[in-house]
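Q: What would this chain look like folded?
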Amino acid sequence: MAMDAPTAMHTDTAVLTLAQWFSPAYPIGAFGYSHGLEAAVERGLKGTAALQDWISDVLEHGSGRADATFLAAAYLAHTPDALHEIDAAARAFAPSRERLLETDKQGTAFCQITADVFGEDLSALTYPVAVGIAAQRNALPQTLTAQLYLHAFTSNLVACAQRLIGLGQTEAQAIIRALAPLCIQIANDTQHGDLAMLSSTAFRADIASMHHETQYSRIFRT
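A: My prediction, written as structure tokens:
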């Protein structure tokens, strides 16, 4: 059965809906995942400049760009079968067990709360795929959705760093501000949802997520 997407509009309601979805208060448990950052800090990552570079690489060359691509592909999906294939690709693209756990658990939580609050019939999907299809069904602007998704992802990593390396509030907000243009750029670059363009070269972040699986002392799930 085809899924006809409603026409997206920039409205106050759309903006506030996205603000709600990507608020730290939306109960998907994002605060519990460091995306390998905890392991990177354990192995010597420190300082504001190094942290900003690490997050920038994850956004531009790793799961940030990949997630934006999956989000766009889900938004543009025309059938349930196509959506299922996109979700399967998102799972296969996870570079480690913990990264798969992260996208699976956050996606499941997003589906559950969005179904309860917004009345969407969403099955358990990976996080970016769930956001993409939910945005489509609610006629939310595709590119703005991706921009705010990436911005929330960045903000969560910075919040993790505040707990891990004592990053100050001013430095934390400066990093988020500095990386905002990159979030916009990636959302624009990936708006066609072309899965043939998927790639990942953020090797240090991927390896950090693998190291975290066996890290003895930790406070984050990934």
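Residues 40-212 form a domain with the Urease accessory protein UreF fold (CATH 1.10.4190.10).
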